[in-house]
Amino acid sequence: MKVALFVPCYVDQLHPQVAHATVRVLERLGVEVVFPEEQTCCGQPMANAGFAADAAPLARHFLEVFGGYDHVVAPSGSCVSMVRNHYDAFLSGAPGFDRLRRGTFELCEFLTDVLKVGELPGRYPHKVGLHQSCHGLRELGLGSPSERMEPRFSKVGLLLSRLQGIELVSLSRPDECCGFGGTFAVAEEAVSCLMGRDRIADHLAAGAEVVTGTDVSCLMHLDGLARRTRLPLRFRHVAEILAEATA
């Protein structure tokens, strides 16, 4: 199987090791990974801030770059959700858009839903807290939101739980927002920081050594708050954990 790797802006500019880890995980599972160098931002920051006219050409460019691939994979729930759930406003009826929307996946859902990964031969002997980012949880269905009366599940948690030695800690509020929200963290700094500190306190109370998730943006927000008060927590994207555990 061949996939095209989409690398979100935060990953590209600040945490490129997450993209490298994504490639390693996919290649160890026998997937051929290609990186279209013409790719740019998906347009989510502009669209979320209300600048639809600025997001539209980025959506069209995304389709031009990735429209020829059966599968597009990204280590970001929010960017994948932008393509799958919010590109209609820009690309509805465009040739190839339906194929692009159906074939674009966040890394963990690609592993569970497409590759049908049943067992990960790896070891990660740490206590890990899973932060379920809002876009992945509620727009991609990576887990079961607490407000819905349905059986509990987590695609990310399932993958992590199959690593030897790992202990996924139980949070008191497992699907609460971290407070980042893109420009929300700038426009409502005080509220954003309070929400982030609440999430950190929950992970600490549960005994987590490492906090992981599917979105670098959320992890950056929490990491910044933790470092400023020198709290004993490490923050690793799920791709980094899977790559390290299966090395």
UniProtKB/TrEMBL annotation:
Pfam families in the record: CCG
- Gene Ontology molecular functions: oxidoreductase activity
Q: Name one GO cellular component term.
A: cytosol
Domain Cysteine-rich, chain residue ranges per copy: 3-83, 128-223
Protein name per UniProt: Cysteine-rich domain-containing protein
